[in-house]
Design goal:
By secondary structure, this protein is of the alpha/beta class. It contains 13 helices and nine strands. It has two domains: about 240 residues, Spore Coat Polysaccharide Biosynthesis Protein SpsA, Chain A (Alpha-Beta Complex), CATH 3.90.550; about 100 residues.
Length: about 375
Amino acid sequence: MVKTWEYLMNIVRAQKIENDPSATAHKRYKPLVSVIVPAFNEAEIITQNLTRLCAYLQSLEQDYRWELLVINDGSRDATGEMAEAFARVRENVRVLHHESNLNLGQALRTGFHQCRGDYVVTMDVDLSYSPDHIARMLQKLRERKCDVVLASPYMAGGQCSNVPREREILSRQANRYLSRMAPGNLATLTGMVRAYEGRFVRALQLKSTGMEINTEIIYKAQILNARIAEIPGHLNWEAQEPGGARRVSHMKILRHLGRCLFSGFVFKPAFALMLPALFAGVIACCAFGRILFETIAHYQASFASAGFGMMQLWAAFRAAFQHEPHTFWIGGIGGLAALQFFSFSLMALQNKYYFEELFFSTHELIKDMP
């Protein structure tokens, strides 16, 4: 009788636990979020910003587990030592070191290879995008079942604050150019603050070592038909240095412009080559029109009374050449250039198709390997 009573009480307790929302939440799987933070010569802000970032991640622990990876990219100041000291008292913070400065792309690739998260978030160590972007990107990633979510200050609802005017104009126009070259109607392709599906980003074969890795990821994700979305972001270059010193842009403008132009060419190589082909073609057509006009004028002036004939027409053509030889040269060179650029555009289109097919097939093969 006693055993029967204990058996019934155990059933009641199990039923209460099953109906308890807190117990159900406890049993629910919490995905692991890996936050990757590249750092180069950031000794003056790294401790306070990592503290702020960890405090925010702790506020998400009801829904997520997390790890923080700091990539010390060959800093020449005390960034590495301070990051190590910070990580020494926190078990879910790791610091990875590059012996020399390998640039942003290699720092991100190191983080992607070393992280373990179900989701991967990349953040700037200066927190120019505040930590609360993390939860919003993760929410979008899970709700839409995306592979990549971007924080975009240039989409509707996004904003920039305290950014130098010339830097904002350059960045906004560069992203507008890339948006028109790339499919998908994305407003920001160069930003680093993003959330990724973990297995997806770790399987990507990336080769860029600089800032262009951000557009490379988008390009290769689109080849794989990945789901990409954006959330409105707030880029805020508030004072980060002790004493209120304002953040300074170290971006090399000409180098950045060159990379953006090349990235646009990668997205649409045929379109990029068709523009000079069209320009050369217009010049050639104008020159040929002028040649035709001069030939007709010389024919009417000197040979019309003799009647129409090929000899008279050829004489008029030769007279036009003697009168304006430069027009013939411009027309010939322009026509050849237009034909050449048009041929290059067809070759680039074919090569792009072959590369995308090869990349897709290789990715699928590697993804299915044990």
